[in-house]
């Protein structure tokens, strides 16, 4: 039986004879059903219509994506303790498997939030590795598997120098990943759109829903700032191929929190 994939958000559902009547992810206020209505595909069909592109940011960070559904790209992060797939994309083809295996395979998958769970079980099966998700978002796992390992609390150490951090915000379990040794020891933060890099790449911003324009409260964004305060990083990778802050990323986050809070509190001077 096929495992149907939502064409709007990329979420893969359990095997079934017929496509689901609705996508739980798209029906919720943070996502949307397109004007054409709910449509479905499969991984086999996607392999005929989409292929992954790759971008090597440096030898340790490689972007992977095909512009499907939400359009995010995943990142292959090559740390001293092993390779991590940060976030996930629905498209998984033979070329992608061959490339990643040639670079050492995957030790783990970690995902920022439910919009990017997509075909995570297919990836875990292909590379025989666990998927680390924050337990606060467990109710959004629509396709459970034994590969999923839930972590609790505010931080989770994958291995030396690699830490998952619960920021919340966009989702209750919204997660970012800190790699202390990344960027030649200057530190890298991988954020998905929990901390969304803006189009000008000079700021990050924060939303409950990006397509439906639902902001977060000042209190929530201040909490995100506090969660990140103990971690040093100079580079920040967002969720699209071009959304990278290449230097001074910690200062960018700090000024972005201050700007956001002032704007929603009405103290920034906007008319």
Structure write-up:
The structure is a single chain. It is built from six helices and 20 strands. With 271 residues, the protein is α+β, with helices and mostly antiparallel strands. It has a single domain (3-32, 51-265), classed as Ribonuclease Z/Hydroxyacylglutathione hydrolase-like (Metallo-beta-lactamase, Chain A, 4-Layer Sandwich). The strands form five sheets. A seven-stranded mixed beta sheet has the order 4-5-6-7-8-9-10, covered by helices on one side. A six-stranded mixed beta sheet has the order 11-12-13-14-19-20, with helices on one face. The protein has a three-stranded antiparallel beta sheet with strand order 2-1-3. Helix 4 links the parallel strand 8 (108-110) and strand 9 (131-134). The model has no long low-confidence stretch (mean pLDDT 97).
What descriptive keywords fit this protein?
single chain; about 270 residues; seven-stranded mixed β-sheet; six-stranded mixed β-sheet; 6 helices; about 20% helix
């Amino acid at each position: 039986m096929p495992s149907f994939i939502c064409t709007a958000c990329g979420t893969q559902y359990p095997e079934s004879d017929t496509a689901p009547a609705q996508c739980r992810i798209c029906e919720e206020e943070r996502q949307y059903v397109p004007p054409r209505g709910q449509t479905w595909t499969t991984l086999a069909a996607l392999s005929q219509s989409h292929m992954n592109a790759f971008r090597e940011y440096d030898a340790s960070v490689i972007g992977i994506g095909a512009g499907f559904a939400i359009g995010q790209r995943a990142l292959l992060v090559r740390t001293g303790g092993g390779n991590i797939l940060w976030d996930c994309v629905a498209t998984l083809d033979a070329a992608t498997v061959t490339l990643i295996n040639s670079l050492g395979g995957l030790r783990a998958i970690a995902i920022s939030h439910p919009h990017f769970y997509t075909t995570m079980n297919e990836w875990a099966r292909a590379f025989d590795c666990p998927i680390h998700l924050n337990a606060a978002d467990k109710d959004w796992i629509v396709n459970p598997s034994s590969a999923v390992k839930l972590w609790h609390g505010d931080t989770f150490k994958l291995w030396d120098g690699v830490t998952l951090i619960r920021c919340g915000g966009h989702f209750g379990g919204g997660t970012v990943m800190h790699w202390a040794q990344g960027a030649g020891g200057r530190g890298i933060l991988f954020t998905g759109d929990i901390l969304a890099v803006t189009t000008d790449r000079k700021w990050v911003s924060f939303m409950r829903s990006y397509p439906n324009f639902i902001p977060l409260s000042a209190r929530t964004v201040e909490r995100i700032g506090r969660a990140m305060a103990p971690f040093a990083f100079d580079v920040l990778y967002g969720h699209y191929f071009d959304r990278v802050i290449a230097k001074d990323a910690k200062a960018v986050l700090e000024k972005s929190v201050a700007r956001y809070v002032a704007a929603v509190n009405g103290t920034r001077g906007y008319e």
